Amino acid sequence: MSILKIVKYPDKVLKCKAIALEDIDASLIKVLAKDMFDTMYLNDGVGLAANQIGISKQIAVMNPTGSKQDEIVLINPEITKKRGMSKMEEGCLSLPGISSEVKRANEVEVKFMDLEGNYKHLKLKGLPARIVQHELDHLNGFLFVDRLNFLKRKTLLKKFGKRGKA
Ligand code: CO
């Protein structure tokens, strides 16, 4: 088990669109995914994108419940449909200590490749749909604060900047 270092805002890697995985080396990707899950669980997260550990590749892991059978590895994911709207409180392991309500679609359909190299298509709603949108944002170089209005973002980032500096 390896715990990876989580990249924090404002590191540039978080602002870059991650590159699609091609020629997938299954054994390497499995080790990476396992390490990403371990790192996510240790930090009480429900999702983690590869650029958050400094790897600018299209891979993210998520688990809305914490049960092993609910683990999802998203390789080269793409949202094909969005439906409805909901507001939910969101935080991010790259922006520890701040959170905000964020508006997102309530239901999504996502296609991606799994660890075995099979194409998958899932319909998700509620928390799992929210995590998929948050992680895909990461892979496209966006953070949850980028979904907020200017003033709200500025206030939160100021609070984040003051963390631990009392
Ligand atoms: Co995040």
From TrEMBL:
Q: What class of enzyme is it?
A: hydrolase
Q: Which biological processes are named by the entry's GO terms?
A: translation
The EC number(s) attached to this protein equal 3.5.1.88
Task: Identify the InterPro entries for this entry.
Answer: Peptide_deformylase, Peptide_deformylase_sf
What does the cofactor section's free text say about binding? Binds 1 Fe(2+) ion.
From the UniProt record, list the reaction(s) this protein catalyses: N-terminal N-formyl-L-methionyl-[peptide] + H2O = N-terminal L-methionyl-[peptide] + formate
Q: Which UniProt keywords apply?
A: Hydrolase, Iron, Metal-binding, Protein biosynthesis
A Gene Ontology molecular function term of the record:
metal ion binding
User: Which cofactors does the annotated protein need, by name?
Assistant: Fe(2+)
Active site, per annotation: E135
Q: Does the keyword Iron apply?
A: yes
Tell me the residue numbers annotated for binding Fe cation: C92, H134, H138
This molecule's function is given as: Removes the formyl group from the N-terminal Met of newly synthesized proteins. Requires at least a dipeptide for an efficient rate of reaction. N-terminal L-methionine is a prerequisite for activity but the enzyme has broad specificity at other positions.
HAMAP family assigned = Pep_deformylase
Protein name, UniProt field: Peptide deformylase
Tell me what organism the protein belongs to. Candidatus Aquitaenariimonas noxiae
Lineage of the species this protein comes from? Bacteria, Pseudomonadati, Candidatus Omnitrophota, Candidatus Aquitaenariimonas
